[in-house]
Amino acid sequence: MLAEGSDGQSGTSTTPKDWKEKEGCPGSSLLKDLIPLGTEESAMEVVLKKIWELSDSDQRDPFMVADLGVLAFRHQAFCQALPRVSPFYAVKCNNSPWVLRVLAALGTGFDCASQVELEQVLSLGVAPSRIIYAHPCKPISHLQYAARHGVQLLTFDSEEELTKVAQHHPGARLVLRLWTEDSKSLIRMSTKFGARLELCGHLLKSARDLGLAVVGASFHLGSGCRDPHSFTQAIADCRRVFEMSRGVGHDMSLLDIGGGFPGVEGSEPEFEEMARAINAALAQDFPEGAGIEVIAEPGRFYAASVCVAAVNIIAKKAVLQPGGHRKLLYYLNDGHYGSFRVFFRDRFPRMPIVVKEFCSKPPLFPCTLYGPTCDAFDKLFNEEVQLPELDVGDWLIFPSMGDYSAVMSSTFNGFLPASICYIVGPELRYLRRAQGSELGTGS
Q1: CB-side neighbour CA atoms (13 Å) of 184
Q2: Could you report the per-residue pLDDT of 80-125, keeping only the tens digit for each?
Q3: pLDDT 10s digits, 134-174
Q4: Pick from 8, 38, 73, 388: most CB atoms within 10 A?
C-alpha cells in the first residue's frame, strides 16, 4: 500500500507475487550494468520483480533501481519551461557515471566543484567549455588542474580567491557570485558563499587590476527554495553588477541563476511556477537580443526521480505507551549513513510504499524507522510516521531517491551502501544507436 504521505494521498496494496506470472527479466539480468526496459515496463515493475527474487532467500540487501530514461524527460521539461536557460547539471547531486553519460549525450553542461568531479566529466569526452567550476573557494591544486585541462569558467566571491586565480589560473573567465536573500530556502547557501552587492564594485576593480577577466555574475538561492520571486530580486541584483562591470572595463555576457529547483513531484512551489517567475525576471532585466547567455545549475530536478530504493525490515520492536497505545520500531538495512542522509534536510517525510498484502485496510501506528548501525542518531526521520504493522522480512519502497543518496553513502559500522541497478527504456534508444558503446547497450 502507499502509506499516507505529506501530501495526504494514499494508494493501494502491492505485492511481489503479482509478478510471478509475468514475463520479465530474470534475476541474472539484474546483475548486468544496464538493463534494457520493455516498452510497457516500468522501473517500479523492476523493483517488485527484484523484491520477489530476494524474498525467496535470506540475502535481502537494500538496492536501488535507476531509470536513466527519466533524465530525457526531465531534460525536455527543463528546456521547455526555461527556453533561454542552458542547464549545467550539478554533479554533486548524483555523480553516477551512467547519469553523467546520459546527460552528456543529451547535451547538458556540468557544474563541478572539485578536481575529482572535473576529472569524471572530462573523462567522458565533455568539452571544457561545457563545464563551470562553480565552487567559490577552490584548493590551489584543483585550480591548477582546471588550468591545465582548459576549464576556464570559474566562480569567485572574495579578493583572496582572485589572488589565487591570478597566480594559478590567470587565463580564467571569472563569474562573480552574489550573496542572495535566501531565508525562505530550506538550506541557505548565503551563509557560506556570495559577495554582498555593496562589495561587488571593489571586487570587479580588484580583478581588473590583477589582469583577470570577469565575464558574468551568478547566485544560488539555496536548496529547497520556497519563494519563486526570490529569483526576481537576485536577477535584478545581477543586472546591477553587469552595469558596474561596464564602468570598470569588464565585458560581461554570462548570467548563472544557480540551482534550488525542486526534484520531487508535488513540491511547493512547483517547478512550473518557479520557471514563470524566472522567465518574467529575465525578460525584465536581461531581455532577449541583449547578447546574454543564461545558464543554471539544476541537480535535484534531474536526479531525484531517477532512482527508486527498496529496503528490508531486519528487526522490529513493539512498545506499549501510556494509555495502552502501541508504538512500533522498525530497523531497516539502510539508513542515515547509507542512502537516507538527505532525509534530515527535508521538510516533510518522504513516505514509503509498503510491499505487503492486507485482507482489509490495516490500522496505522506511530512508527520510528531506524537504520542498521549502532548509532541512535541513525534513523530516517526526526518525527514518527504512520504505518501499518509489518514483520521482519517485509519491504519498503521509497520513490524519488536519486538525489544526494548514493553520493552521501558511507560504510559506517560495516554496512555496505545499497547496490544500484540501472535500466534504460525506449526513450533513450536514439542515444544507444548514436553512442552505443558509451551507454553500454550496443545498437
Answers
A1: 10
A2: 999 999 999 999 999 999 999 999 999 999 999 999 999 999 999 9
A3: 999 999 999 999 999 999 999 999 999 999 999 999 999 99
A4: 388
What is the pLDDT confidence band of residue 372, given thresholds at 50, 70 and 90? very high
Residue 371, CB-side half-sphere exposure with 13 Å CA sphere = 31
CA angle 406–95–305, rounded 5-degree value: 65
- What are 296's three cell numbers? 543554471
Pick the catalytic residue: 200, 367, 374, 421?
374
How far, in Å, CA of 405 to CA of 412, rounded? 15
The DSSP output letter for 176 is: E
First and final C-alpha spacing in the chain: 39
12's CB contacts (< 8 A; 6+ apart) are: 1, 2
Nearest to 132 by CA among 88, 87, 68: 88
- Rg of the chain over all Cα atoms, to the nearest angstrom: 24
Query: Is the CB of residue 88 less than 8 Å from the CB of residue 296?
Result: yes
| Buried b or exposed e, range 354-392, using 16+ CB within 10 angstroms | bbbeeeeeeeebebbbbbbbeeeebbbbeeebebbbbee
HEC sequence for 6-69: CCCCCCCCECHHHHCCCCCCCHHHHHCCEEECCCCCCHHHHHHHHHHHHHCCCCCCCEEEEECH
Q: What is the pTM of this model?
A: 0.88
Verify whether residue 374 is a known catalytic residue.
Answer: yes
Distance CA 239, CA 255 (A): 9
Kindly report, residue by residue over 102-112, the tens digit of the pLDDT. Answer: 999 999 999 99
Query: If you average pLDDT over residues 329-342, what whole number do you get?
Result: 95
Contact call for residues 402 and 43 (beta carbons, < 8 A): no
Among candidate residues 82, 95, 89, the one with its CA nearest the CA of residue 108: 89
What's the rounded Cα separation, in Å, for the pair 68 and 259? 21
Q: Specify the residue for cell string 525467496.
A: 56
